[in-house]
Amino acid sequence: MSRELVNEICAAQPGAEWSDPWGGGHDCWKVAGKIFALTGTVGTHVTVKTESAEMASFLIETGVADRAPYMHASWVALPLDAAPDELAHRIRHSYRLVRTALSRKAQAALPPL
């Protein structure tokens, strides 16, 4: 899967916004100002949130993902050449986790799911 396809999946999420907050070519995808997916300047992985540090450890131990540098233990880095459905599933799941953690007011301001 390419970085462009990752960006397409991210852009398709309701209320998703792109930014490059650190400069230099990052693809940082946010919903209501909160990151749900991030591709670094090198662009070999997409970093996404999982429901827990335990799930992240499981994905890392089984070889599905790597530890996400600079992020909390519940985040993982998936290689861009991972199975397309796994990558799409993890990006959408990360989006939903971040979106549901928003305040009711922030969620109400977003387009419907």
Provide a descriptive summary of the structure in words.
- The protein is of the alpha+beta class and 113 residues long.
- It has one domain: Aspartate Aminotransferase, domain 1 (Alpha-Beta Complex).
- The chain has four helices and six strands, in the order αββββαββαα.
- The protein has helices at 3-11, 53-61, 84-100, 104-108; strands at residues 16-19, 27-31, 34-39, 45-49, 66-67, 75-79.
- The chain has a six-stranded antiparallel β-sheet with strand order 1-2-3-4-6-5.
- The mean pLDDT is 95.
List key phrases describing it.
113 residues, alpha+beta, Aspartate Aminotransferase, domain 1, six-stranded antiparallel β-sheet, 4 helices, 35% helix, YjbR-like_sf, MmcQ/YjbR family DNA-binding protein, DNA binding, YjbR/MT2646/Rv2570-like, DNA-binding
